[in-house]
Amino acid sequence: MKLSIWALIKGQFAKLPPVAKADLTGKTVIVLGANTGLGFEATKHFARMNPGRLILACRSQSKGQAALERMLKAATGFKNAELWIIDLADFASVKSFADKFEQDGGRLDILVENAGVAPTAYEASKDGMETAFQVNCMSTPLLAFLLLPHMMRTAQQYSTVPRLAVVASEVHHFTTIPKDVSDGGDMLATFGSAAYCTPKVMRSRYLLTKLLNVFFVRALNARLAPAAPLIVTAINPGFCYSELNRPLSGVQALIMRLMHRIFAFTAEEGARQLVFGAVGLPESLDKLRGQYINQSRTEEPSDFVISAEGQKAQDRIWDELVETLGKVDPRVLTTVDKYLSPTAAA
């Protein structure tokens, strides 16, 4: 599918379907980036569905605690939300979160990977990668790999079908993998390196990270068994009011405020898409496998994603991702060996 800027803007004026609903009694839901914006609004929607456990995964203790207090005042009727700390810019923090879930998590029915950043300049993470790349494209898959066994066990023990919803974006339509990178060595190492992340590259960094999110969802789904009890989707919330653009300043910040005022969805409207990925279309689950979701319906991703060139890049990035994250935590390799095929299904 080819998406024009005009089509994108036009889509911002569409009337969105109401939020999907389900009975989550006894089920466990984790939402990353749950203290603000889309993540917080999604947690409010989930809270009204009476989950057994609702875990707000946040980077900041103070902001996460404030979110819990706001939820109590939001008339959800839900008082048992939990705050767990995770910093996706730090692999050690992601591993600690997974360790905590191993000890205290129990079942896991819904994982919404919403946390993400939109940088304006290069900044190195604790692990030496460009921060946005690590947060959006490395730690997001790392947590998915580490928690996937819990979702599979949940499916077996409770005869249910857990869901993994990864927040992507329609902006993935407006980028590809640069030829100099695809013709070079390790693509992921290149994307995360200080040498590669020039000011020009960083101006389109967010677009690339969202493309890689779509690749991850499609690659993971392609390596699951066709009838695997796990639904993985890439979610486009649309252009919404959020704190994603808080690093902007000056003219850029002014332009963003004008765009928000003219055609942005509210955070609650965007959150409906996250919820749809988590509970929508229960009667047609197979139609959701590996799909890109826009405005509560499946939609073809970009022409590059579905092209032969895009498929080649997707498979290569998957192999590099597994190898790199396997060194970060050997449990990644165990998960891949036990639950996934070594190559994509034909």
UniProtKB/TrEMBL annotation:
<dbReference type="GO" id="GO:0016491">
    <property type="term" value="F:oxidoreductase activity"/>
</dbReference>
<dbReference type="InterPro" id="IPR036291">
    <property type="entry name" value="NAD(P)-bd_dom_sf"/>
</dbReference>
<keyword id="KW-0560">Oxidoreductase</keyword>
<protein>
    <recommendedName>
        <fullName>NAD(P)-binding protein</fullName>
    </recommendedName>
</protein>
<dbReference type="Pfam" id="PF00106">
    <property type="entry name" value="adh_short"/>
</dbReference>
<dbReference type="InterPro" id="IPR002347">
    <property type="entry name" value="SDR_fam"/>
</dbReference>
